[in-house]
Design goal:
The chain is of the alpha+beta class. It is built from ten helices and 18 strands. It folds into two domains: 150 residues, Creatinase/prolidase N-terminal domain (Creatine Amidinohydrolase, Chain A, domain 1), CATH 3.40.350; 235 residues, Creatinase/methionine aminopeptidase superfamily (Creatine Amidinohydrolase). α7 runs antiparallel to α8 and α9 packs antiparallel against α10.
Length: 407
């Protein structure tokens, strides 16, 4: 695997990623996990799972995830695509690897859902011998599940998300290479935001400049629907949106936007300072930086997500901030999902201990905040990290802020 971003274009002068081979490998991995769970088929609706199986890059409508496009993975056959009418002509013209495609409504209106199951999904299930099989579904509208049960009472519905998450957890070499490209875009997006963070700018303006870089470099989406730019006291506690707040001298400014490229995410974040930092701001920043490095040091085979989380907690305490980490996980998996299992530092009930395996990819993002600091006492730093056979590979290269690091 190249440990740098070679370039986004298809060129004649060097061999790059064979996307047809990558698609075949992903489907093969999903098939293996389907068989492992003794499922006759997988019916997926989550955007990342549909893309993993078909490479459909659709128009995404806010608040309509899992309602626009789907895919059916059956034994010994190419995935069947169910897509919005707005995508159908493009799919027919530009995606020859999709051998079977059906136009569907938005999975929301109960009558339309009933018609979809009766006249579109049903015949497909029958053609593939699934009228009485066990079908794993990742996530769907309740009305859809009830319609399937009503029209096909002999179909058993099972968990289809767990096998898809297992298939996606260990990245292929080609996936890691695309993530390098996504991180190259995300680095540029982050740096653009940091450079735009000046006194007199609004948080929204910083986000706008960063988003321009994202689209200029071929990025598909930000890591989050609501680009996260927070300045000054908005980082203590963190306000996870870009608002109309004016950035002032002495403010810490945090930029967390990231980028998707080729279906994979680069999730990178940095904090900077406008003007000269206070000692307290330096203490918080230095503590978070130490937490990031302590976490990465444990991210290798033989250690677990708990080992990494414990190292972060110790680093925070050693720097004078015990118990001050944000009440959210410290790190999360990244791939075709912007945020996916496994998690590092999840404290809510049921959180599993997971051993690090080569091919796993994480965003490491500890956040410490202290109330009452002029210009803000909150810092998050986020690195993209791949587990290898040896020490972790850090994808992200955006610079840290030397003015905020204590010697």
């Amino acid at each position: 695997m190249d440990r740098f971003a070679r370039g986004q274009f298809q060129v004649a002068y060097e061999e790059r990623i064979d996307l047809q081979h990558l698609r075949a490998q992903r489907v093969q991995k999903a098939q293996a996990e389907r068989e492992s769970d003794e499922l006759d088929a997988l019916l997926v609706w989550k955007d990342e799972n549909v893309r993993y199986l078909t490479d459909l890059r659709p128009q995404l409508i806010a608040c309509k995830s899992t309602a626009l496009n789907g895919a059916l993975l059956v034994s010994d056959d190419a995935p069947v695509l169910f897509c919005s009418g707005g995508e159908r002509d493009r799919v027919d013209d530009t995606m020859p690897w999709v051998k079977e495609v059906h136009t569907i409504p938005i999975i929301e209106d109960r009558d339309l859902i009933d018609g979809f199951v009766r006249d579109i999904l049903g015949p497909v299930l029958e053609d593939h011998g699934l009228a009485s099989g066990t079908i794993g579904i990742d996530e769907c509208n309740t009305a859809l599940m009830l319609a399937i049960q009503r029209h096909y009472p002999d179909v058993t519905i099972a968990d289809g998300d767990a096998p898809m998450l297992r298939a996606r957890k260990i990245k292929l070499a080609e996936e890691l290479q695309i993530i390098e490209e996504a991180c190259a875009v995300a680095d540029a997006v982050t740096i653009t935001g940091l450079e735009a963070a000046k006194a007199g700018m609004r948080e929204l303006e910083v986000a706008a400049e960063a988003m321009r870089t994202l689209f200029r470099l071929g990025g598909e989406y930000a890591h989050v629907m609501t680009p996260f730019v927070a300045s000054g006291e908005h980082m203590a506690p963190p306000h996870r949106i870009a608002s109309d707040k004016i950035i002032r001298n002495g403010d810490i400014v945090f930029v967390d936007i990231g980028a998707s490229y080729g279906g994979y995410y680069g999730d990178i974040a940095r904090a900077t300072i406008v003007g000269r930092p206070s000692r307290r701001q330096q203490e918080v920043y230095t503590a978070v930086y130490a937490c990031v490095q302590a976490c990465i040091e444990k991210m290798r085979p033989g250690f677990t997500n708990k080992d990494a989380a414990d190292a972060v907690g110790k680093a925070a305490a050693d720097h004078g901030f015990p118990g001050r980490l944000l009440s959210l996980f410290i790190g999360h998996g990244v791939g075709m999902g912007a945020n996916e299992p496994p998690y590092i530092g999840e404290t809510l009930p049921g959180s599993p201990v997971v051993e690090f395996k080569p091919g796993m990819v994480f965003a490491v993002e500890p956040l410490i905040w202290v109330r009452g600091v002029r210009g803000g006492g909150g810092v998050r730093l986020e690195e993209m990290v791949a587990i290898t056979e040896d020490e972790a590979h850090v994808f992200s290269r955006a610079p840290f802020e030397d003015r905020l690091l204590l010697p």
